[in-house]
Amino acid sequence: MQTDSRVLILAPDDNVAIAKTDIPAATTLQVMGAMVTLAEKILTGHKFAFKTVSQGEAIIKYGAPIGIASRDISPGESMHLHNIVSDYIPTYTLDEGHQFQEH
């Protein structure tokens, strides 16, 4: 399936595309064979939906789940904390006093 060279997708099950460069709003891109028009400017390294993601559906990036859609997300929308609940948890380590410290 064809994907624009400005976009990175590493796994066939991904529903997130990563911008390899800043891409202006209203740009139409081919992503995994589908035509997607960006709803807003997507900055380098930021992610956007290239297909519909329903509320509660897993967000898949690089073949791994990274969160859950907190609302329906349309193709071309940016994906971040405003519409995703992250699966990441804080990292904890033991300091010299053996108390957990959040980093």
Series of secondary-structure elements, N-terminal to C-terminal: EEEEEEEEEEE
Strand content: 35-45%
Number of strands: 11
CATH topology: Archaeosine Trna-guanine Transglycosylase, Chain: A, domain 4
**Broad shape:** globular
Uncertain ranges: none
The structural domain count equals 1
Radius of gyration: 16 Å
Please name the CATH architecture.
Roll
What's the rounded overall pLDDT mean?
88
Q: What share of residues is helical?
A: under 10%
Largest sheet, described in full?
4 strands, antiparallel
What does this structure look like?
By secondary structure, the protein is an all-beta fold. The chain has one domain: Archaeosine Trna-guanine Transglycosylase, Chain: A, domain 4. Helices cover 0% and strands 37% of the residues. It has no helices and 11 strands. The chain starts with 6 loop residues before the first strand and ends with a strand.
Write out key terms for the chains shown:
about 100 residues, 4-stranded antiparallel sheet, mainly beta, globular, Archaeosine Trna-guanine Transglycosylase, Chain: A, domain 4, 3-stranded antiparallel sheet, single chain
